[in-house]
Structures are given as C-alpha cells and as structure tokens.
Amino acid sequence: MSKTVAYARTSTNKQDLGIDVQLEAFKIYAPDRIFQEQVSGRKEDREELAKALGILEKGDTFLIYRIDRLSRSVRQLINLEADLREKNIHLKIIHENIDTSTTMGRLVFNILATFAEMESENVSLRTKSALHELKKKGVKLGNKGLEKKTNAKIIELYENSSMTQKQIAEACRVCTKTVYNVAKRNKLIRKSL
Q1: Structure pTM?
Q2: In what order do the strands lie in the sheet with 90-93?
Q3: What is the pLDDT of residues 120-170, one digit of tens each?
Q4: How do strand 61-64 and strand 33-38 relate by DSSP bridges?
C-alpha cells in the first residue's frame, strides 16, 4: 500500500510561522509521516530530508509545500526529482500545484527549479550589497565583542570560584565556549579552593 511522506523546512528557528504554514497545508493530504527541520536549503546533507527520502518506496508520494523548501539549487532539485522518478515515487508540491507524475508537472518543476535558484542568488546579492553599503557608512558589522564588565566577571569567577565553566557561563549569560575562550586568551589557571 502506497504512502504519503511530507517534508517541511525553514532556514532558521526564527521562522516558526513558516513551519506552521507548511504543516497546516499538509493536513488535507493526510500524510503518513511528516519530517521537518530548520536548515539552509543550500545544504545538501540534511538529516530529516535524508530520513524522509529513505522511507519512500515505489508508488509513494513525496509531499512538500513549496519547491524552495526542497532546495534552492537547480542541480539538487533536478537530481532529487530524477531519483524519485526513477524509483517511481511521485513528487507533489502544494503551493505551485505540481505533480511530477505528469509530463506537464515535470516541465513546470524544471522551470520553477531555475527560478528558485535565481531568487536565492538575488537574495544573496541584495544582502551583500546592503552589507557593503553599511560598511561604507561606517557601521561596524559582526559580533560586537564581549563587554569589559562581563569579561572581568568571567575571569574573577574562573580564578576564584569552584564553579564549572558551564556554571560560569550561565552566571555571566554567555555560552560555555566564551568562558573557554576568555580563559585561554588570558591564560587563566584554576586555583584550588
């Protein structure tokens, strides 16, 4: 008996609404399994995508919300669709109303794959252009660095307390790696208390 496997993706965990929209759209198709993750569409080795593709069998349907949820790379999209077709697995894309079990569906899929990659490149170019303009205006980009007060507190706790690096990180509201880096940079040595 054939099954429907759905896959939802957003690029970051700040896009919870995006996942919710996709999951809601899946409901009318009543998928047997839903896989979801928050990772870039350009990344090829996506864990949940691999799991979804791994359980698909001949005659199954692979359901996604939009073509760019599967990937933004033409090569990756074409290869995925060809692999699915070779295994006699149908790809259904809700938003663009594409079903690759038909010739017309495959044609539209290939055209939209090109547009998905083009849009991704345009977003990248706009971002780079905006960052370049900000730099020209003297705006400092990137990590603003650790405040002197926080740095001093980490040093104090590291040298004069029995707290673990994790506890120091929590007390100073930084990540454990920051505590490690401050200790390494300042060649701190733990005093036995």
Answers
A1: 0.60
A2: 33-38, 4-10, 61-64, 90-93, 98-99
A3: 778 788 888 888 888 888 887 776 778 889 989 999 998 888 889 899 999
A4: unpaired
Out of 2, 11, 40, 120, the active site residue is: 11
Q: Return the CATH number of the domain spanning residue range 4-120.
A: 3.40.50.1390
| Cα angle, residue 93 at apex, residues 116 and 20 outer, rounded to 5° | 90
* C-alpha torsion angle, residues 45, 47, 48, 49 (rounded to 10): 20
Cβ atoms of residues 64 and 7 within 8 Å: yes
The set of long-range contacts for 140-147, using a CB threshold of 8 Å and a minimum separation of 24, is: 146/174, 146/178, 146/182
Which residues does residue 98 pair with via DSSP β-bridges, in sequence order? 93
Say whether 11 is catalytic.
yes
Residues in the chain: 193
